[in-house]
Amino acid sequence: MIRPEARAALIRWREVMASALLAGLGLWLIALGGWVLIPAGAGLVALAAGLALNAWRRLRFAQGGEAPGLVEVDEGQIGYLGPGIGGFVALPDLVEIKLITLRGRRLWRLKQADGQTVLIPVEATGAERLFDAFASLPGLDGAALIAALEPTGTGGSAALVPEGMAGMRLIWRRPGAGLMRG
After folding, report:
1. Which residues make beta-bridge pairs with 11?
2. Read out DSSP for 3-64?
3. Looking at beta carbons, which pairs linking 75-82 to residues 24 or more positions away fall under 8 Å?
4. What is the pLDDT of residues 121-171, one digit of tens each?
5. How far apart are CA 120 and CA 110, in angstroms?
């Protein structure tokens, strides 16, 4: 009954729309007035604004496209199951995140404390789940994370790297990583 393109757009924007509905409910409570309903409505509007901001960031993080493989995020562990490569990394063991461009394809390069790395295509199925996993890391700048994925500007576009060459952009490094204690 609904066209597939319209359905995909509704699914993609569902969190933003739910936040807008919550804000509408809060504004309705404010309009009813009263000592109880005005603060409750204001609280709902503030909650909706925070949820909408997070939903907007998650929406901008998700990249369209078709890349091989599947990304899983489960109980503090990121896994990538690809046709030729793959691997798992636990969030506590993660020490560095880089966005690399290799042969025109952008990949997340996740490095563990023991030096092992996992490469995950930005367009892989389920890669949008990485936003919440990355957001839980200490000291990660969410705005820089999203800016790195922007196709233009200072975000590190793939077009700025010649075909066949690798471009690398550091997104996050664990605070204190690489320091030796004596």
Report:
1. none
2. -HHHHHHHHHTHHHHHHHHHHHHHHHHHHH-STTHHHHHHHHHHHHHHHHHHHHHHHHH---
3. 78/110, 78/118, 78/120, 78/130, 78/133, 80/118, 80/119, 80/120, 80/124, 82/121, 82/124
4. 988 888 888 988 998 899 888 888 888 887 644 444 444 444 444 578 888
5. 8
Residue 40, phi then psi, degrees to nearest 5: -65, -40
Domain ranges of the chain: 4-61, 67-173
Report how far residue 140's alpha carbon sits from residue 163's, in angstroms, rounded to the nearest whole number: 30
Tokens of 143: 């705005």
CA distance 149 to 26: 33
Query: Is the torsion defined by CA of 26, 29, 33, 34 positive or negative?
Result: negative
Q: Mind listing the pLDDT tens digit for each residue in 13-32?
A: 898 999 999 999 999 999 99
